[in-house]
Every structure is written in C-alpha cells, then in structure tokens.
C-alpha cells in the first residue's frame, strides 16, 4: 500500500498545482497579465531547475521522457517570459530620437 501512495503522491501534487494555477491565472484581468508574467519570470527558472533535478533522478525510460518534456517545456516557458518582458519594455521607451 505504501508503494501505491508513493507512486501517486507526485501525480496528485501535479493535478492540484495545475488546477490551482488555472484558477489563479483565470482570475487575472487581461490588462495585468503581461506585467504579472514579467514579474514572475524567476518562478519559471525555479521550475526549470526542479525539472532538471527530477530528470537527473529519473530511472525508468518513462520517467526520463517525462523529465525531458518537463525541462523542454520549462525552458520554453522561461525564454518566452523573457521575450514578452522585452517586448513590454520596448513599448515604454520614449521615441524622441526616432521622430522625423
């Protein structure tokens, strides 16, 4: 019985985190979404580090595949967050030198 609980605990945590994240982000107004994303880019880095640790401890091919997918998605999320931040910061730059 203990092995079953140990196997399903990470799945329950993943399901809870997914549901909680969906509910929290779903309540954010559209106008605040980009500043909120740029302000939490460090979280994407922490997720990426956690995915790399999980991949390093993977034993079975299924665990390795899931870990690789987690690293890939975490890296894409972090890079995308920085691109969005750069784009948002470009919108706030003055255009004094660019006038004709």
Automatic annotation (TrEMBL):
Origin superkingdom: Bacteria
InterPro entries (alphabetical): NADP_transhyd_a_C (IPR024605)
Keyword flag Repeat: no
Protein keywords: Cell inner membrane, Cell membrane, Membrane, NAD, NADP, Translocase, Transmembrane, Transmembrane helix
Protein's organism: Candidatus Competibacter phosphatis
Protein location: Cell inner membrane
Membrane spanning residue stretches: 12-30, 42-59, 65-84
Protein name: proton-translocating NAD(P)(+) transhydrogenase
NAD(P) transhydrogenase alpha subunit C-terminal domain span: 11-93
Annotated EC: 7.1.1.1
Record field: catalytic activity: NAD(+) + NADPH + H(+)(in) = NADH + NADP(+) + H(+)(out)
Mode of membrane association: Multi-pass membrane protein
Class of the enzyme per the UniProt entry, highest EC level: translocase
Main location: membrane
Function: The transhydrogenation between NADH and NADP is coupled to respiration and ATP hydrolysis and functions as a proton pump across the membrane.
């Amino acid at each position: 019985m203990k092995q079953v609980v140990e196997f399903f605990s990470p799945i329950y945590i993943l399901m809870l985190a997914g549901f909680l994240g969906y509910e929290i982000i779903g309540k954010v107004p559209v106008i605040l979404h980009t500043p909120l994303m740029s302000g939490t880019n460090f979280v994407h880095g922490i997720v990426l580090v956690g995915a790399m640790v999980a991949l390093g401890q993977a034993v079975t091919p299924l665990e390795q595949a899931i870990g690789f997918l987690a690293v890939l998605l975490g890296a894409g999320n972090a890079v995308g967050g920085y691109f969005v931040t750069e784009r948002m910061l470009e919108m706030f730059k003055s255009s004094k030198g660019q006038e004709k």
